[in-house]
Amino acid sequence: MTDIRFYAAPDGSCPFERDMRAPVAVDITRAVEKNASGLKGNIKSVGHGVSEYKIYKHGGLRLYFGWDKGGVILLIVGRKRRQSADIMHARVLWTDYLKQKSGSQ
After folding, report:
1. Residue 27: which pLDDT band, with cuts at 50, 70 and 90?
2. 44, 27, 90, 85 alpha-carbon torsion, rounded to 10°
3. Which residues does 60 contact at the CB level (< 8 Å), separation at least 6?
């Protein structure tokens, strides 16, 4: 089973959890569980260590995440209409995650 964690900003906020509102939360949870169980489905790399998982509901949801030592770090939830901006934001968060991680070791 894949370990699933949420990215946490230096101020303690969690952008991914903020986006977990019903009714999309159910579909996001299902997608994360499918991914964790090894069903990779609609996943593609969007560069700089960030991957995108597509959910074809609710206006084209996208889950952005990175892989870290067998685990998934959930970054943000995006939508098709904001895809380019969401990818850039996810890359910034991933870079911050890696900086936080390297500073804590």
Report:
1. confident
2. 90
3. 54, 79, 80, 81
Q: Rounded to whole angstroms, how far apart are CA atoms 9 and 100? A: 9
Query: What pTM was computed for the model?
Result: 0.83
Q: Is 62 helix (H, G, I), strand (E, B) or coil?
A: strand
In tens, the pLDDT along 70-105 reads: 788 989 988 889 999 999 999 999 999 999 999 865
Give the structural domain span for 82. Answer: 3-104
Output the domain CATH number for residue 93. 3.30.2310
Domain count, the chain: 1
Which residues does residue 66 pair with via DSSP β-bridges, in sequence order?
50, 73
What residues contact residue 81 under an 8 Å CB cut-off, 6+ apart?
Answer: 59, 60
